[in-house]
Amino acid sequence: MAEINLEDLLEKRVQQAEDSSPNLVPEKAVGRIAQTVEELTPAERAEVDKIKEGLDLTDSAAIIDFGTTAQKNIADFSDSILSNVRTKDSGYVGELLSELLTNVKSFEPKSSEGGFLKKLPLVGSLVGKAQTVMQGYEKVSVQVEKVKTSLQKARMLMMKDVSMLDSLFTKNLEYFKTLELYIRAGEEKLQEMREVTLPKLRAQAAASSDPMAAQVVSDFESAVERFEKKVHDLKISKTISIQTAPQIRLIQNNDKVLIDRVQSAIYNAIPLWKNQMVIALGLTNQRKVLSMQHSVNEMTNDLLKKNAEMLKVGTIETAKENERSIVDIETVRKVNDDLVTTIETTLKIQQEGREKRRAAEAELVALEGRLKKALESTLDGRNG
Q: Are 378 and 270 contained in the same domain?
């Protein structure tokens, strides 16, 4: 843009249009401005100059629109970053990993009933235990496979997020560079206004006889102040862009950490768990066989002991019976003693009976004699 003079401001006030004027910027001021952009590349230097040339501080709309495209890009970009923050996804992946751990820990065989073999005294408990182990393994395996599928999907989404965040980082860098160019152009323009244009305009207004000169210069100073605030707003947007870069990297790093955890779960933890379950099943089968063998051995020993005891008792009893007479001598002696006693007792009783009969007969004879005497006496008494 050409240099601004008091006449330009007065004419702008009347016509509300932009007029060109000769370049009156001193070489000293140009040198100061050039010193502030020494680090810019030639292409960036050209872009800054283009922005400055297209900037008209006498146009309020131009001041308002200065850098708004870059600011809007930054605002839209920030919204995009917020919408892609993976707090929910991180929690979701954590829930999947916790669910995987819970399913693996839940593999604890429990007793159950049913089945013909389980009703057998010897192998029932062993078969039941083996069936429970297999059922528990199959149930947990199904749940683990579901979690594995969900983890794989989450891993793919996070890998896409990492790629998307790389693109966002690149865009953020582009927006940052654009803001930097606008800010540099604005700062150079402000420096030019403070050091060259405004002092010149104040001098021209002081020397002018136009009563509106001082007012238009004051209005222009206000426009410069508004432009300074606009540049300050762009610097704030630049700060936001600077802050956004590490935020993007933090989100990426979090996703990468989760990807590593998910990959570790999919390719390390789950296969290792399956291998350990195969080993556990094998050990369970070994314990089942060993327990069954132990039970068989115990039962065999018990049978042998019981049979040996029965054989011992039977043999002894048989031998005793074999050596025993048909009638024991004790029995013969007892029978004989009882017989002798019986005979003796019988004879004694018979003897006593005979004696009692003799005594009774004698007594009967005596009684009969007495009775006869009594009868005779009675008859004699009657006759006499």
A: no
In angstroms, the CA 216 to CA 5 distance is 11
Tell me, yes or no, whether 80 and 191 share the same domain: yes
Pair 248, 156 in one domain: yes
Q: Tell me the helices (H) and strands (E) count for the chain, helix number first.
A: 11, 0
Q: Are 63 and 227 in contact (CB under 8 A)?
A: yes
Q: What angle, rounded to 10 degrees, do the helices at 42-53 and 124-192 form? A: 60
User: How many domains does the structure of the chain reveal?
Assistant: 2
d(CA 63, CA 71): 14
DSSP secondary structure letters along 131-161: HHHHHHHHHHHHHHHHHHHHHHHHHHHHHHH
Separation between Cα atoms, residue 140 and residue 106, nearest integer Å: 8
pLDDT in tens, 54-75: 888 878 888 888 888 777 776 6
Average pLDDT value for residue range 243-271: 83
- Residue 255 domain-assigned (yes or no): yes
Q: Which helix (H) or strand (E) holds 37?
A: none
pLDDT at 183: 92
> Do 184 and 48 touch, CB atoms closer than 8 A?
yes
CA dihedral 82→88→89→90, nearest 10 degrees, is 100
Side chain identity, residue 94: G
Give tens-digit pLDDT for 260-279.
888 887 788 778 777 877 78
Q: Domain range for residue 374?
A: 339-384
Do the domain assignments include residue 8?
A: no
Tokens in use for 255?
Answer: 């996703």
In whole angstroms, give the CA distance from residue 192 to residue 29: 7
pTM for the complete prediction? Answer: 0.50
287 plus 345 within the same structural domain: no
d(Cα 371, Cα 382) in Å, to the nearest integer?
17
Distance CA 212, CA 13 (A): 9
pLDDT for the residue numbered 155: 82
